[in-house]
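subagent[fold] <- orchestrator: predict structure for attached chain, return tokens only, no commentary.
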Amino acid sequence: MGRYRRRMYEEYGQEFTNDESFNIAYRKVKKIKGFYSHLKVYIIVNLIIIVSNLSRDFSMIKFNDNGLFDWNTYSTAFYWGIALLIHAFSVFGPDIFFNRDWEQKKIQEYMNKQSSNNNKWE
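subagent[fold] -> orchestrator:
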């Protein structure tokens, strides 16, 4: 546990330990932080792999264009990117496109349409 998180937990932990909404929010924030750490490592490692495949000699002076169109250059980024998308979907869930606000708005919209159709003949 990091110093800041440990200090926050010690300060506010006793105050919110019985509060279920605090525990849910804490777990959600922890999942989001884990996803962004995964994304950061993904970007750094794949940049290193791609740059090292494009400049085969380690002086970074000579640019090797054979690696530009080589599948091995981008295969790690591709497959790891699929795993990163799965991780994003597990963290953010199906609420990415159809969140609760959208659902409530659609329900209200259909209820308004239904009530206007019922009032049309009166």
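orchestrator: received. Logging for downstream: The longest helix spans residues 20-54. The chain has a mean pLDDT of 77.
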